[in-house]
Every structure is written in structure tokens, then in C-alpha cells.
Amino acid sequence: MSAGEVIKCRAAVSWGANEPLVMEDVEVAPPKAGEVRVKIMATGVCFTDISASRGKILDVHFPVVLGHEAAGIVESVGEGVTTVKEGDHVITLFLPQCKKCRVCKLDDSNTCLEFTSGSQSRQLMADETTRITCKGKQLLQFLGVSSFSEYTVLKEFNLTKINPAAPLDIACLLSCGFPTGYGGSVKTAAVKPDSVCAVWGLGGIGLATVLGCKHRGAKTVIGIDLNDAKREIAAEMGVTDFINPKEVEGPMDKYLNDKFGCVDYTFECIGNMYTVKQSLECAAIGNGVCVLIGVPPQEMELNILPIHFLLGKKLTGELFGSFKGVDEVPLLVEKYLDGKLPLDKFITHRIKLEQVNEGFDMMKEGKCLRTVIKNE
């Protein structure tokens, strides 16, 4: 039995910006009050992890254990934990749901204040320390998760219990990327039937956005990507018209308007300021909605003309697809088990934890949709 004891295990540690992750022996302390220690069974490689390793987003500091898109099994719980117990299957949540803050009490928002101003924003636990150490140094815990480790400790509201029938190496996709894209079209935009949608960037998040548009009954889904190799999977997910920007002459908004009449919903899934502006320009006058889904570098600013808003366009954004994680992720798991979410098709590679840098390289080079690290 390991409950109450320090667990020694392996983790991929980021010691500094723009440095490769290093496999290290680490110590994971027992959970304190309101915390849960989890054996990580599978974790996805997300571009947010890559951006964090470069020091480009979320004011990340080092040394840190990255990784945030994971599923695992509860090893032990701290005092006062009531929602999970030892042996439960869980999905980690980088966006918590404390159910106590002002935002959690709203019906139409999911941006829990624990994420923006709580200890998690400083990569710490509630007592302003961490539970993972290496060589006598505290390792910061990325997004309250740190799943590039065989074990980690999370606050109770940073995870949710799921049906154990779901394979954890597939269910982990519901921890970040898939809900972020799928919810962008299903919940944030609430795409209307027979509408025209355009999605910039057909990686895992963009394709999940496409699938959401399809499920909401869009008649036309335009997929925009520089990689022609994505045409087949894009069509499978619901893209009716694939466009490579290199083949478009003149402004994209004129091209889309001439070909499709107008675009009701646009989704930017890249995090690039140029394509954010472009997607807003392409949204229809009068009722067009542009949803920002991709995460840009934190120092970037967006320069846009106010006339777009005066002409009736709307620009909005979301985190985690506007889903309230604790309450709604288990429902997505059930939807997967019912055969309604083809999560399997989003996984192109499975690797071991010690291959995490290879996983980063594949994502940077556009050679994968989602790479899953599977722990034995």
C-alpha cells in the first residue's frame, strides 16, 4: 500500500525554456486535504505543452512538469475528498470547476476563478507548494495537472470520475483538445442547422470543431489548412469544402463570399493573429459569429477595425469548449461509449513517456493529430 507515503516514479521535467524535457526520478508526496493522487495511465501531447515549454503562454516558470490532457486511476485521496475514491477512473481537468466561485455559479460560463487567480495560476497547490520534487527542488505543476509523470496530485475539482468502461488511452482526449474544439461549435457558437461554417486549422482541435458543426446540422463546413494531407480525414469528420490558402488568389473574405454567399460561423483554431483577423473578416455582415479557439502567444495583440462590430459581427472566445468539466465531461464519455464521438480516429500515434520529445517534434512538424503517451 502506498497511501500516505511518498511515491518515487519517473517524470519528464522541463528545466528551462526551449530545452528538451528530461526524464528524471521524482518524488510525489501524498495528497493533502482536498487533493487526490492519481496514477496517470495515458496523457495526450497538446500544443499548449509545447508553447509552455517555450515560455510563450500562461506565464509559465521553471522547473515544471508539463502535461495536462490525461486520464488515470485514483491511488489515494486526502482529507475531505468526497467525489472520488481509491480505484476510481478519472479524467484530469486543466480548467477546474470549484462550484463555489462567482463564475462557477453562472449557467453560461465555465472559466472558474481558481484557474485565473487561484494558486493554480501560479502552478502551485492551495498551500502555495507543490507535491512533486526532484533532486531536492520543488517542481511546479502545470495547469494544476502535470501529467508527464507516472503519478501526480491534483485538487479534487481538477478531475472528474468517469465510467470505467472507457479505455483511458482514448478517454484522455476528453481532458483538453477534443472538448475545446467540439464545444466551440456545439456550445460556444451553438451552430444553427443549415448554416455555413469555416474552420481555420485542421489539427485535432480544428477537426473536433468540424465534427461539432456537422453534429449541429451545418450544411456547409469549410476547412482551411495549408496541409493537403489532411483532406481525407477532414472530409471524414464533416468538411464539405477543403481550401488550401496557398491556392486562393486575393482576399480570403472575397473568395469565400463569392463561392458560398456568406459564412455564418468562423472558428480560428490556430492561435495566429493573422488568421484571427482573417476569420473575423470572413464572418457574415449582420449575423456572423467568429469564435477564437486557438491560443496565441501571450504577448500578441489583436488590431481589428471596430466597423466589423458596427456591422453586426460578433467576436468571442472560449476555453475547454465552454464545458463545465466536473459536470459535463462524464457525459462526453458516455457519448463516446454510445458510439457518437469517434475519438479513436483522432489518435495517430501512441508512445512511451520517455519518447515525449519525439511527440513534441511530431506535433511541431504536423505529422500527427494526437499523440498519446501510454504508461504501462
TrEMBL record:
GO terms for molecular function: S-(hydroxymethyl)glutathione dehydrogenase [NAD(P)+] activity; zinc ion binding. Residues 16-373 form the Enoyl reductase (ER) domain. GO terms for cellular component: cytosol. GO terms for biological process: formaldehyde catabolic process. InterPro entries: ADH-like_C (IPR013149), ADH-like_N (IPR013154), ADH_Zn_CS (IPR002328), ER (IPR020843), GroES-like_sf (IPR011032), NAD(P)-bd_dom_sf (IPR036291). Its cofactor is Zn(2+). Keywords: Metal-binding, NAD, Oxidoreductase, Zinc. Belongs to the zinc-containing alcohol dehydrogenase family. This is Enoyl reductase (ER) domain-containing protein. It comes from Chironomus riparius.
